[in-house]
Amino acid sequence: MTQSLASRLWIYQKERFPLIKTLPLLAVFSAASINVSAMMAGRDLPGWGTYAAGLALALILFFQMRVCDENKDLEDDTRYRPERPIPRGLVSLRLITGLGLLTVPLAVLVAWSTSVLWLLAIVWIWLAAMTFEFGAPTWLKARPVLYLLSHMAIMPLIDLLLTGLEWTGTGPAPDLWLFLALSFVNGCVLELGRKIWAPTAEREGVETYSGLWGPRRATQIWVGLLLLAFGLLLGVGLSLGTVWPMAIAGGLGLAACLMVAGRYLRNPDEKAQAQVDMMAGFWVLICYGSAGFLSLLAGGP
Predict the structure, then answer these.
(1) 255, exposed or middle or buried, with CB in 10 Å at 0-12, 13-18, 19+?
(2) How far, in Å, CA of 254 to CA of 246, rounded?
(3) What's the CA gap between 81 and 181, in Å, rounded?
(4) Which of 106, 173, 193, 262 is the most buried (most CB within 10 A)?
(5) Does residue 70 sit in helix, strand or coil?
């Protein structure tokens, strides 16, 4: 029996854009960005409409990033990852691209109504450049560190857009760069975390950092990024006047990540690989949860 379009799209989102996991993470990410922007500047928190706009823009942009990846990676997916939804024929690239384009006017409407259309344009320009590998795909892919940094630069740009929902018309807080830098480093933490694999899981044509640098070196770099992110989190805490609560929350999260990293180094199997991936997401959740909400609980500015 042929599956309905709705059923096929449901399977696609479960595999490539799982809403059950993505929605809560983006809700925390967008709300924390707005809260930090307001608290760093000593302003009152905005109304619920600002948070709704932030979640809508975050969800749209991350889906558009997935759509762009589907287009950019189609050749490699067809050759090396034929089990993915588009190569195996579950849905067509044309359909997914069409859905991505349908979100464009919605994003424009939300951004225009909240006076951040110019910030959205900046994000889209960078996303387009990423999709076309900045016009030099071979040169860029031969330089994996530069590839990583250039692609993760979209994270602080998205955060600039989300915080702009709060500071447009008044100006950003002077210390906001700390939070944007934290977003950039956390993007790298996530990207490395999902591409540190067990040696037995490595696949031809699938680029991973464990395959590029080896499991030990890749894990050491991941840990270094975690430490840098922790330092930036403390900087955000100092700016908000709640450094000790953030140090405790971040320290516990960092300790858990280090334990997982040690487990992977001792035995880099597929279970340890999954734990590194999971803890990368857990760390990012701790960072945004601490930065965006601990100050409210602790009575910070």
Answers:
(1) exposed
(2) 11
(3) 33
(4) 193
(5) helix
What sign has the CA pseudo-torsion 79, 84, 90, 94?
negative
The C-alpha atoms of residue 97 and residue 65 are separated, in whole angstroms, by: 11
Query: How many CA atoms lie less than 13 Å away from 293 in the CB half-sphere?
Result: 13
Instruction: Round to whole Å and give the CA distance between 159 and 29.
Output: 9
Tokens read off for 271: 């279970």
Residue 133 burial class via C-beta count within 10 angstroms: exposed 0-12, middle 13-18, buried 19 and up: middle
Confirm if 264 and 273 have CB atoms less than 8 A apart.
Answer: yes
Predicted pLDDT at 157: 98
What is the spatial distance between Cα 237 and Cα 292, in angstroms, rounded to a whole number? Answer: 10
Q: What is the pLDDT of residue 65?
A: 98
CA separation for the pair 123, 294 (Å, rounded): 28
36: amino acid identity, one letter: V
**Mean pLDDT by 10-residue block, N- to C-terminus, for the chain (301 residues)?**
88 96 94 97 96 98 97 93 95 97 98 98 97 92 92 97 97 97 97 96 92 96 98 97 94 98 96 97 95 79 50
Predicted local confidence at residue 246, as pLDDT: 95
* DSSP H helical ranges for 195-214: 209-213
Give the contacts of 156 (CB within 8 A, at least 6 positions apart): 180, 181, 183, 184, 187
Closest CA to 288 of 161, 192, 186: 186
- Please tell me the distance from the alpha carbon of residue 270 to that of residue 156, in angstroms, as a whole number: 31
Show the tokens assigned to 120: 């959205």
What is 234-266 written as a DSSP string? HHHHHHHT-HHHHHHHHHHHHHHHHHHHHHHHH
Q: What amino acid occupies position 263?
A: R
State the DSSP code for 47: -
HSE-CB of 83 using CA atoms within 13 angstroms: 1
